[in-house]
Amino acid sequence: MRRGSWKIRILIGLAIVAFAFFKRCNNKEENPYTGRVQNINMTPDQEIAIGLQSAPEMAQQHGGLYPDERMQSLVDAVGKKLVNNSIARETPYEYDFHLLADDSAINAFALPGGQCFITYALFSQLTEAQLAGVLGHEIGHVIGRHSAERIAESNFWQTLTMGASVGGDMGGLVSGIGQNTLLKNGRGDELESDELGVLFMIQAGYDPYEMIKVMEILKTAAGPNRVPEFQSTHPDPENRIEMIKEAIEKYSGR
């Protein structure tokens, strides 16, 4: 390839990289509920729309909704109690709590905008207070805008990788750095949600120490062959327990 062509490729690559950083800087905003400055490229209304659109498909992937209305009513009641007694009630998000029929996967998750899910496999092992800890954690993901932040960060690293690939042979390296960064950020999301979950439990009148028992349930469910923390978006349960204890002391003075 001619030398002039290499110069053009480098200039184009640099332009793409500069655009990625420019866009990222312009997307910075402070989360009014956590005070954390984040890279966000969508509005709360867009988050709500994404969550509502994705909810049926996510439910279907876990066997649909659990058919017992009495148990679903308990999930609704605990979720609403957490929302009504916390800063969550001041957010624009539409909180819905879904009990999924999946009786094998121990899991809970939240979509952007307020759609929160828990599988029957996990629900069946919890007391009401422990259920509050799980749902409080998922509400924390919504308020923390973690999905929206991960989407924006992923877009940033994809653009950066493209620029590095056009300008030279560094695309793979940049992509690897980006994936590692997203993993670390994902673990930070979990810890922030744990802390918010503790706060919401206390505000709703639940014993926050029950959150520690939830971590022990998750640790047992993962078994001895769980994915090492450096390869996982979730911190190790032992590390989470220590952070939860600190959050309990912070918010309740125990």
List the helices and strands and how they pair.
Blueprint: H1 3-26, E1 28-30, E2 37-39, H2 44-61, H3 69-84, E3 96-100, E4 108-110, E5 115-119, H4 120-123, H5 128-143, H6 146-167, H7 171-204, H8 210-222, H9 237-252
Parallel strand pairs: 3-5
Antiparallel strand pairs: 1-2, 4-5
Helix pairs in contact: 1-6, 3-5, 3-7, 5-7, 5-8, 6-7, 7-9, 8-9
Question: How would you briefly describe this protein structure?
Answer:
Belongs to the peptidase M48 family. With 254 residues, this protein is mainly alpha-helical.
Walk me through this protein's architecture.
The chain is mainly alpha-helical. It has one domain (9-252). It is 64% helix and 7% strand. The protein has nine helices and five strands, in the order αββααβββαααααα. The chain has helices spanning 3-26, 44-61, 69-84, 120-123, 128-143, 146-167, 171-204, 210-222, 237-252, and strands at 28-30, 37-39, 96-100, 108-110, 115-119. The strands form two sheets. Strands 3-5-4 form a three-stranded mixed β-sheet, sandwiched between helices. A hairpin with a 6-residue loop joins strand 1 and strand 2. It is globular and about 55 Å long. The model is unreliable at 12-17, 166-185 and 227-232 (pLDDT under 50).
